[in-house]
Amino acid sequence: MNVRQEVWKKIRELQIVSQPSLLILIRPKKEDDGNICIGRYLYRLYCVGILNRSRNRRGIYQYTLANDIGPLAPVARAHEVYDPNDDRFYDFIAERVDDQLTTIRNARNGKKAHAAA
Questions:
Q1: How far apart are the C-alpha atoms of 87 and 43, rounded to whole Å?
Q2: Distance from C-alpha of 70 to C-alpha of 74, rounded to nearest angstrom
């Protein structure tokens, strides 16, 4: 089973997940690459409305399953997500797109996300 399918399985099972909890549960082969990959995947699922997100008290994003599309993991692409269960594409919701590059750069540099004031 690939990392994407493992992440999707855990999302469906737990309903509420965070990037750090998924890293512990799934343990990708290269933690740094897995950290960025899992974070980007969660972000893209959020951008199309499959997941909702909020920050916990420590400023870490918590993702909640909003649309369980089925057992096959969605395939995240640059500006859309493909659902292999229904053979359809989801476009990004403009209001949900933020500066993803900053998030990825911070993850690579080991910086923690800061809660909005």
A1: 21
A2: 9
Q: Which residue has the tokens 């690459």?
A: 33
Tokens standing for residue 104 = 């990825």
State phi, psi for 57 to the nearest 5 degrees: -60, -25
Per-residue pLDDT of the chain (117 residues; tens, 9 = 90+): 788 899 999 999 999 999 999 989 987 665 445 566 899 999 999 999 999 999 999 999 999 999 999 999 999 988 899 999 999 999 998 888 875 545 555 556 665 544 443
Which of helix, strand or coil describes residue 94? Answer: helix
Q: 65 — phi, psi (to 5°)?
A: -65, 120
Q: What is the gyration radius of the CA atoms in the chain, in angstroms?
A: 13
Counting every residue, how long is the chain?
117
Query: Are 62 and 78 in contact, with CB atoms under 8 Å apart?
Result: no
